[in-house]
Amino acid sequence: MAARASTFLALLVCLSTTALIRAEDPYLFFTWNVTYGTISPLGVPQQGILINNQFPGPNINSTTNNNIVINVFNNLDEPLLFSWNGIQHRKNSWQDGMPGTSCPILPGTNYTYHFQVKDQIGSYFYFPSTAFHKAAGGFGGLRVNSRLLIPVPFADPEDDYTVLIGDWYTTDHKVLRNVLDNGRSINRPDGVLINGKSGKGADKNEPLFSMKPGKTYRYRICNVGIKSTLNFRIQGHPMKLVEMDGSHVVQNTYESLDIHVGQCYSVLVTADQEPRDYYMIASSRFIKESTNATGFIRYEGSSAPASPVLPEAPTSLIWSLNQFRSFRWNLTASAARPNPQGSYHYGGINITRTIKIVNSASRVDGKLRYAINGVSHTNPETPLKLAEYFQVPEKVFKYNQIVDEPTTENDTKIIVSPNVLNATFRDFIEIIFENHEKSMQSYHLDGYSFFAVAIEAGKWTPEKRKNYNLLDAVSRHTIQVYPGTWAAIMLTFDNAGMWNLRSNLWEKYYLGQQMYFSVLSPARSLRDEYNIPDNFTMCGLVKDLPKPAPYTI
After folding, report:
1. pLDDT tens readout for residues 277-323
2. Cα angle vertex 179, ends 178, 185, to 5°?
3. 263, 478 Cβ separation under 8 angstroms
4. Which DSSP state fits 348?
């Protein structure tokens, strides 16, 4: 009888363990071999960064709450990090892959990222965040599909395509980096790519995508470039916008879309035209000499060539600004959870702090630097997050070197220093971006999505709040700021960690136009932030220090 009881108890333990294992969210495992390789996307052989011999890198196809595990082998001759544009890493800035949060993966070594796409859906991408590597490749698509039980506000498409558009230089990334290190600006990009191709090379007669007549397809379009806003359009086919930076949007139809650096849009396209080939075009905006890339979509069963007459891109800034104002959050659609997006009433929350961000450029010791509120960020040898976690920040950086309301002096006088601003956990914040420069600006905030409530010409004043969209502004992670305009965003700092705010224009990012928000939970609890991973690489001042006591519940 005792033996039977023991067997029964063992069976119960086994069943409960199995249930626990099955209850855990699924894991996706990847191994990446990162190498240099010769590529010729604009017809000029050059050194590119490949992942598993692919340029662009492989797509990551995941579903809400999946655990993503990526073992990265760095076979370059330089330290390397990867970051995940738009993935929020809830409670886990350890996996954000920015120089302020992580020690780099040294040449000849490997590191395993492990993060969860918690409570997110939508279209994203990854990229190398170190040493101007992004100008050589190493980027790829990252999609987060909705769970089967969560309704999506459109019918399942026939297929789901990733379209990575971006400007491109034929100059080696090390040469470009050397130009910047010597205090000079890099020239305009040499061209534009669509999925690593320009439409002008030997493979120009090969279709990028195919469509069956009468069927509807989803295209996820991300601007992975380093400088240029791009206008995207498909010959003869309107695009129904359905998702933007991880949010379902009101489904308006557009002939073309301005996609700024770092942004991702999802559109539905129906193959309802005469069966033949049709061009898709990505062309640069807001520069004097526009360049473009083309690729074509082939209707299955057809061999008729595409018309050589390409649809023209818009030319004015006002057109782009009006398009931004047409974007609306879909209040009734579910996102990652069953409740509608609009159940979060951000417009009724009291603002506890207003931070104005002003970008500027000047020279320091004769060299070009870009700054936020007069501080040009530089990365110390010890990552900011590690210095903070090991409680030695005063040996690495100084908090709050910028103020919430910059003065005109901050436009011309620049200091070079790590730029870290304290933010109070769970405060509801308003951030104003003012662009006093003559070129486009695009800002991205890691760890969060925010409500893009306004863009207007001139300078911001508190009276401008009456023009905010406090009902259905799109929740997103990247916002453009046109020359001579301001943009306002609102968000709750509810994700503890060290989070990078940066210009997506890579020359400006590299030369200091970035900063970090330190968001600390006073409880120092696992409810708010995860402990440092066991496999985390140590470097700098903390390399040989004992680990602090871990957080507990």
Report:
1. 999 999 999 998 899 999 999 999 998 999 999 999 999 999 999 99
2. 145
3. yes
4. G
| Distance, CA of 222 to CA of 226 (rounded, Å) | 12
SS3 357: strand
Short-list 398, 395, 411, 426, CA closest to 523: 426
Residue partners of 520: CB distance under 8 A and separation at least 6 = 388, 422, 425, 496
SS (H, E, C) 407-445: CCHHHHCCEECCCEEEEECCCEEEEEEEECCCCCEEEEE
- Average pLDDT in the 67-88 region? 98
Residue 16 DSSP code: H
Scored b (16 or more CB within 10 A) or e, 191-227 reads: bbbbbbbbbeeeeeeebbbbbeeeebbbbbbbbbbbb
CA-angle at 224, arms to 516 and 514, nearest 5°: 20
Distances from the Cα of 435 to the Cαs of 58, 334, 441, 464, in angstroms?
A: 35, 34, 7, 16
Burial class (CB in 10 A: 0-12, 13-18, 19+), 4: exposed
> What would the DSSP string read from start to end of 246-276?
TEEB---EESEEEE-TT-EEEEEEE--S-SS
What is the C-alpha separation between 508 and 306, in angstroms, rounded? 39
Longest pairwise C-alpha distance within the chain:
88
Q: Is 458 helix (H, G, I), strand (E, B) or coil?
A: coil
> What's the chain's average pLDDT?
94
Give Cα separations from 118 to 20, 66, 433, 446, 493 (angstroms). 19, 7, 28, 14, 17
Do 317 and 455 contact (CB within 8 A), yes or no?
no
Residue type, 543: K
According to the model, what pLDDT value does residue 23 have? 62
Question: Which element (helix H / strand E) includes 401?
Answer: none
Is pLDDT at 229 greater than 60 in this prediction?
yes
Question: For 511-525, how does the pLDDT look when each residue is reduced to its tens digit (9 = 90+)?
Answer: 999 999 999 999 989
User: What tens digit of pLDDT does each residue of 16-43 get?
Assistant: 333 333 468 999 999 999 999 999 999 9
- What the block records as the tokens of 90 is 């809830």
Beta carbons of 319 and 247 less than 8 angstroms apart? no
Q: What is the DSSP letter of 21?
A: H
Q: Which of 489, 461, 457, 497 is nearest to 473 (CA)?
A: 489
Q: Which two tokens stand for residue 34?
A: 């990162």
